[in-house]
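Input sequence (198 aa), recorded before submission:
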Amino acid sequence: MRLLPTSEFSARLASPYTDAELASSELLLDGEPTGLTVTGAVLEAAVAWEGYRIAFFTDDIPYEDMLRIYMFDAEMTLVDAAVLGAMYSTGTFDDLTLQPPDALTFRFFGDTVWRVVLLPEQEFALPLLSDPAGVKRKLKFFRRFRIDGKPQSEGIHRSDIPMSPRPAVLPSVESDAKMENITITLGGHHGFGTCETR
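Predicted structure, token format:
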């Protein structure tokens, strides 16, 4: 397991972020274009592990950045991918630490250390249930890497809301408590992401 230098694995922006579309980047091996384009604007890091390449991209969108993790085999075929992030929250990719033989940790969002365990064989995983909050994958029953982390909520907490002596103006503490676990999702541009071959 080793970090890949940009001379071996890099990316160049293929299309910038717009209100209608996320940025995409073309992957380069040894400085040569591969014809492979992935969703993401900034290649934060790349790691080589047992013939695989794991690439970490961010979207470079202030206040709502996502981290995209791609795992490619020796032929640069995408074998797994995941997205970390949440609407109206952001993160900074930092503190990448390799933990041989098969794991790495980093910080991104949720005030937590995230851990990725790379798997030599695909592992069964229940869609929507096998990953922690803030991790999204395409709907499938197998994965090639596992993600562990316990992100802290970056939303508004009841203690952040000023209390009023006039209950007719603000909801009561009891109704606030009932509403704490409600999540509202609004439309946005943060879909899963794509990987295309030209």
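Checked by second reader. Residues 155-192 have pLDDT under 50 and may be disordered.
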